[in-house]
Design goal:
TIM Barrel, two-stranded antiparallel sheet, binds fe (iii) ion, eight-stranded parallel barrel, 295 residues, alpha/beta, binds zinc ion
Length: 295
Amino acid sequence: MLLIGSHVGFNKNTQILGSLEEALSYGANTFMFYTGAPQNTIRSQIDEKLTEKARQKMKEIGMDEKKIIVHAPYIVNLCNEEKFDFSVNFLVAELERINELGIKYMVLHPGSHVGIGIEKGIENISKGLNLIFSKVKNNNVTILLETMAGKGTEVGSKLEEIKEILDKVEEKEHMGVCLDTCHLNDAGYDLEDFDEFLNTFDKIIGLEKIGCIHINDSKNEQNSHKDRHENIGFGTIGFDKLIKIIYNEKLENIPKILETPYVDREYAPYKYEIEMIKNKIFDKDLIQKIRAKDI
Ligand code: FE
Ligand code: FE
Ligand code: ZN
């Protein structure tokens, strides 16, 4: 079954119930959210009643709660010593919250080494992850390391780097990978023949490790190391390649999450992008229509 959704909001008054309702308004059957703002670490307590209501609703409509994703905020960075303690402490508390929500996956950016070199960065993040797992009791959450575009000093733009981190983390059963199509393109991977990419991934890491795929078009050329997401079909990857990835039979049952930009920073495109994906037909006027509210 196609599992398609987008990232959605999470506010302290409605929490996961609000996130679920937003996802449903887009015609999604899964979703991803940050437990607060993505750019800060201010987090509110999880409200048990709202969580229970959301789980009840998911059960009623047959949504698989095991496929819902939380994304860690981007300001945590386990690669560099300067933010190491802060990041470990935040992620321990975050994993406790996610366990409380009953969610199974958390996407994490490996981080940026900020000048100390990729090898040292990989050492630090592995050490950080081991420390985090040792501190969280009864953990059921799998951390998915996201493949990155290689902007600045980002670690994890090569599959070999992700593999090295996975090798160094002791709790292998709680580690996996999140692919991001924009990041893969910008990191230099050719998405033309995705089966070939998956063969490479399988040789280096193992297909069973993929827990989530971020579906984004890219504003930039392959190998640009930029990381600027574009709406589906409006970027350099293009609609056909993205559709082939979304419907690749080896990736069935893996949640596909859109993180494409709002139109004019105002209108969420997800309902319409999900519709295009379900119909497999590209609408070249989509952005204009959303802008003109002519949809
Ligand atoms: Fe991400
Ligand atoms: Fe992403
Ligand atoms: Zn990105």
